[in-house]
Design goal:
Blueprint lengths: L13 H26 L4 E5 L5 E5 L3 H50 L9 H73 L15
Antiparallel strand pairs: 1-2
């Protein structure tokens, strides 16, 4: 026999309601036990009947399970509260940054000469003062860079002069060595020409 679909609403008949409660309660307790055994889960179940009678099941100590639940919900609420505070701080910082960026953009436009028609005399004097300060810093930086370039060029010039002197000295030494070698060659040739021998070309002497 096919069971009909039960309408989810309160059972008006007290006897039928009590019978349904007993059946569903036992089935729920059985499912809780099976879940704890099959899945090695920590399961606790608390049921109060309409008359206030307590039915409970726990795979471990009920008090410890309740304390664990309270601690978890407390930590979770604290974590959510901290997250909300952190988000509010981020929103405030973002709002401040947007305000600063807008102010900097406005000042930048003023320094570029844009939107100064509505500026007062004091505002224009302040802008002029800022431009003078910026111009002074630019010129000082430019002079510093120019000075550094001149020093670098002087250092390179000094290095090139030293290398030129070394090359000149090397050329002089090589030339001197070449001259000495040539002189030694000529001296050897002269010595060879000055050697005397007893060789006589002609008729032999009769006395001999």
């Amino acid at each position: 026999m096919v069971r009909g679909k039960i309408e989810m609403k309160k059972i008006e008949n007290a006897t039928s309601r009590q019978v349904t409660f007993s059946k569903r309660r036992n089935g729920l307790l059985k499912k809780a036990y099976e879940l704890s055994v099959l899945c090695d889960a920590q399961v606790s179940l608390i049921i109060f009947s309409q008359r206030g009678r307590l039915y409970e099941y726990s795979s471990s100590d009920m008090k410890k399970t309740i304390e664990r639940y309270r601690k978890y919900t407390k930590d979770h609420e604290t974590s959510n509260h901290d997250s909300e505070i952190y988000l509010q701080q981020l929103k405030q910082e973002a709002s401040h940054m947007i305000t600063k960026i807008d102010l900097l953009e406005f000042q930048k436009r003023k320094l570029l000469g844009q939107g100064i028609a509505s500026c007062s005399l004091e505002d224009l004097q302040e802008i002029d003062s800022q431009l003078q300060k910026s111009l002074g810093k630019v010129r000082a930086r430019k002079a510093q860079l120019f000075k550094e370039q001149v020093e670098n060029l002087k250092a390179k010039e000094k290095q090139l002069l030293e290398e030129n002197v070394k090359l000149h000295q090397k050329n002089v030494i090589d030339t001197w060595r070449g001259l000495n070698e040539q002189q030694e060659k000529y001296r050897v040739i002269d010595l060879n020409l000055d050697v005397q021998t007893d060789l006589f070309i002609g008729l032999p002497d009769r006395n001999c």
